[in-house]
Amino acid sequence: MGIASRNHVTVTGNPQGRPVVLAHGFGCDQNMWRLTVPALADDHRVVLFDYVGSGRSDASAFSEERYSSLEGYARDVVEVCEALDLRDAVFVGHSVSAMTGVLAAAEAPERIGALVMVAPSPRYIDDEGYRGGFSAEDIDELLASLEANYLGWSAAMAPLIMGNADRPELGDELKNSFCATDPDMARVFARTTFLSDSRDDLKSVTVPTLVLECTQDVIAPREVGAFVHAAIHGSTLVTLDATGHCPHLSAPDATNRAITDFLASL
Amino acid sequence: MMCRADQHPEPQDADAEKVADAAAFAALLEDGAEDLYENAPCGYLSTLMDGTIAKINTTLLHWLGLERDEVVGRMRFTDLLTVGGKLYHETHFAPLLSMQSEISGIALDLKQTGGGRIPVLVSSAVKHGTTGQPLMIRTTVFDARDRRAYEEELLRRREAAEEARRRAEADRTRLQEALAVLQQSLLPDTLPEVPGVRTAAHYHTASPDRLGGDFYDVFAIDGKRFGFFLGDVCGKGPQAAALTSLTRYTLRAAALHDPDPVSALTTLNRVLHERYTGSGDPRYCTAVYGTLEPDPGTGTLAVHLASGGHPPAVVLRADGTADFLPTPGGLLVGILPTARFTTATTVLGPGDTLLLYTDGLTEARTGQDRTGLYGDEALLAFLTAHAGRPPHSVIEALTGLLDSFGDGLDDDTALLAIGVPTADDPRTRNER
């Protein structure tokens, strides 16, 4: 099976421009970037994809073993880059995907030449001398909450209906469908995301890096943004006047400006 | 002027009713929008786009156990949620609301001041200004305690059913593996090499548990003779398999003791009769047992066989003809204390093939409505068309025939072909 269909790869923008890969985080899919794409499309070749197990990826390619570590998700990134033969791409990763980008850049340095980290966190659970914002019990509660929510009718039905290959149109009619994935796969992604610790990997980053944080982010507090900025030598930190964990949706103009300014500086 | 009131008292009562209705309706009208908002049977909440709570109704404050001035302007919507709910809000709820401007029926838990939590279903919509800019988020919150309890029960049941299914699947796999081993013990893996003879066999099992009631084998008796048999025990499943096993090993042992076909079948008859008489479950089989004696001088093969109630073998000749080798009158094996068996002999020359089969083949149901039987005549015609072919080719053709019966073939079927190769058989040339 082709990587393009496995990861539901979408390529848009200027074919002559420097490639920019937009990687969604835990929760939804590439639709998260729809307010970002227009700002990049004139000057860049924009590549979007869904991780296997999310959005419209091929669920049959999912393996619990592979996707139980961030390396598995990083493999998706590298394989998408290889399939399109991208060179020196700018990788824009949201949340946990920022760390996936770090791993992918280390694995395929010729493919990824710069990183944009949107609301990144290398570790969500507090540790000695480190405040990630959550306790281990909190994460257990999230996993329980995920279970509970997949009982909500729309969320529970969406993957079932989307999995109905005979009637793909049903999936389109459902609201919330792009944030609805198979509960079993979402559970694996949630565990991998919230139990990961990528702090040591940050030191390996040698490419130009932009760190974007929000003033009020429940998931990635300001301390975490500062930690990432400090750990990546030569990185740029921009604090967006935005609330929540998705500035590319809640404050798209400011987010786009920060990204395009960074791209222009490369 | 007549007094209508006196003459028609009813309308006056009707008027009184109307007045009462109007009063009740007026009372309803006094349930103004404000009172409805505050005391609605669901929670209402309005927040700024950053989630700061600007307005909240009394019902929701009551659920939360909070005072209005603790909340308005001081708390965000996510502050009302459990940690799991906060994470879910940030990763699913907020992005969806932002992309769709509305979201409905999301299951979240509210924190209560006493440390309790209330499962709720939350719907939100963004209110836009005249120029389309988002102004605020309106949220309704429904108490979902009963529903969530029901859903959790459903989930528990589903998990239990899933676990039971997994266990059943594992049991089934284990059982199938055990049955496969057992079935293999009832049928030879490969037939032995008989010098100057070609053999081929096929077994079609119709039962889903893969335990068939047909059997066959070819084996060495002494330096120059080989024994063979093929048969069909009554019934299917484990009991039939046990009978098959007893039959098979008895025949092999009997043949070593006395290879004469009638003698071997007589021994089998005695064993089966003794084993199953008085068991309340009389069991028997039909079988053809015989010996093969190659004559190196002439290149022919002498076949001596006896049949106990089994369909007649067919001899396919190199000249393109085929005929039954009749063994009429032989009795079922195991049903009477003493039984008569019918013998037959033939000599196979190069290119001749002897075919043994069980009645699954001739009793396959044919035709559109599956009411006809394939029958002896059709079989003989089919085999005549394949006369002169070597055993493996005859078996291959018959396997294709069995497949073509589809669901018309509902019984086990065993096929065994024994033939003498022609001079141009490549393996014959190798042997020279």
TrEMBL record, chain A:
MF-aspect GO terms: catalytic activity
Domain AB hydrolase-1: 20-257
One Pfam match: Abhydrolase_6
InterPro entries recorded: AB_hydrolase_1, AB_hydrolase_fold
Family of the protein in this entry: Belongs to the AB hydrolase superfamily.
Name of the protein in its database record: Sigma factor sigB regulation protein rsbQ
Organism: Streptomyces griseorubiginosus
